[in-house]
Amino acid sequence: MSDIWFKAGEATVLAADGQATDAMPEVLIGSVRGPVGQAFASMMGQVQGHTRMFVVRDLNQMVRPATMMTTKATIHTAEYVELLGGVVQAAMGDAIVDCVSEGIIPKDQVDELAMIIMVWLDPRCAEDPNLDKADLYRTNYEATKLAISRALKGEPAIDELIANRKSVKHYALEGVIEY
């Protein structure tokens, strides 16, 4: 049985200039026999506007550990679904397989683990005729890999969070509060 019970991580990788392809996945990974496995199984149904799907690299190439992805933004268009189930899903799938091949996720535990990834795909991407799909792939690949690594390493550690409490603030607080 896996000793990875309940690990959470997130990452942000910023888009190239002029793109809305920022990636901000939030990852939950743990044993199929624990709370993550239960949450994974309970996601098998659909919720309007927030599609849930297995992460696959391509047709007939579901990743291991089994991973369910869902959106943070409400889906309104077929173009959005195409990007989510195409470039974004493929990037995440490649990142997961690379995490296994690089030892970030223990290879001998892939069938004992499940992952849930909440995906940020800016709705503007589906409307952008100049969307850089390569940048969309890059940001989602890098952020997924980083989020998984951070989850399994327990990063950021609480000591880092405490040390940065007065020096790092959320970008949305600029001009709102002063430390």
Describe this structure in words.
Residues 9-171 form the Formaldehyde-activating enzyme domain. This is Formaldehyde-activating enzyme. Keywords: Lyase. This protein is an alpha+beta fold and 179 residues long. 35% of the residues lie in helices and 15% in strands. The chain has five helices and five strands. Strands 1-2-5-4-3 form a five-stranded mixed beta sheet, with helices on both faces. Strand 4, helix 2 and strand 5 form a beta-alpha-beta unit. Helix 2 crosses helix 4. The longest helix is centred in the middle third of the chain and has 24 residues, at 78-101. The chain is globular, with a radius of gyration of 17 Å.
Task: Give a quick summary of the entry.
Strand 4 (66-71), helix 2 and strand 5 (113-119) form a beta-alpha-beta unit. With 179 residues, the protein is an alpha+beta fold. Helix content is 35%, strand content 15%.
Q: How are the SSEs ordered, and which strands pair?
A:
Layout: E1 7-10, E2 26-31, H1 35-42, E3 52-54, E4 66-71, H2 78-101, E5 113-119, H3 124-127, H4 133-153, H5 158-163
Helix run count: 5
- How do the strands line up in the largest sheet? 1-2-5-4-3
Give the overall average pLDDT: 94
Number of strands: 5
The helix-strand sequence is: EEHEEHEHHH
Report the uncertain regions: none
Q: How many strands, which pairing sense, and closed or not: the largest β-sheet?
A: 5 strands, mixed
